[in-house]
Amino acid sequence: MAAERDGDRRHMSDALREAILRGEFLPGERLVEAQLMTRFTASRFTVRSALTDLSAEGLVEVHRNRGAQVRKVSLDEAVEITEVRMVVEGLIAARAAERVQPDQASELDEIGLLMRRAVEAGEYRRYSDLNQRLHALIREIAGHRTADRIVGTLRGQLVRHQFVLSLLPGRPQTSLPQHERIITAIRDGDPKIAEEAMREHIASVIDALRSIDQLGGPA
């Protein structure tokens, strides 16, 4: 019985997390237990347990008398989170360069080519999707479970700001050559350059976040 409950809790946590990351629940939006029970066909215990799990990840805020809501992340906090990402994703890129296999290198090249075609065609939503696919593949190649878990939590807290970044004029044209440099370094098995390239890329994300602040973007 306990194992079954744990399984239901993990399933509910995963489903709600994915819904938040897809933007189906907006920052500040209330997460009503009764509605979640219906939507996910889950018990009240399972819903409450999942909300507790996502609260620990920083995706949800749970208030004693006001219930739960999707946590808002300020731009200042988003910058701090991205600074941590820069260090951890640099480590992941270096690890990927040490472990990459020929078939994985080919997949990296393919994604890079598709990203360039998306930019040339002005398909920026597709470019954003490919960006996520690239970073996920690099994490998979690295096989560093602890770093992967940390990055997953950090990226989850930034989902709203990542969406705004993807709409910034000129952002894909800026990030494309950065991604191509990362791909080349990993494919060539050069961990030092791979880490440097990833850190430079994430540093440019921080600069872009600060530009949103200057433009009066989401707080």
UniProtKB/TrEMBL annotation:
Pfam families hit by this protein: FCD, GntR
Q: What is this protein called?
A: GntR family transcriptional regulator
Which UniProt keywords are given for this protein, alphabetically ordered?
A: DNA-binding, Transcription, Transcription regulation
The source's domain of life comes to Bacteria
From the record, what ranges are coiled-coil? Answer: none
Domain annotation HTH gntR-type: ranges: 6-73
Asked whether the keyword Iron is assigned, the reply is: no
Q: From what organism does this protein derive? A: Paractinoplanes durhamensis
InterPro entries from the xrefs? GntR_C, TF_FadR/GntR_C, Tscrpt_reg_HTH_GntR, WH-like_DNA-bd_sf, WH_DNA-bd_sf
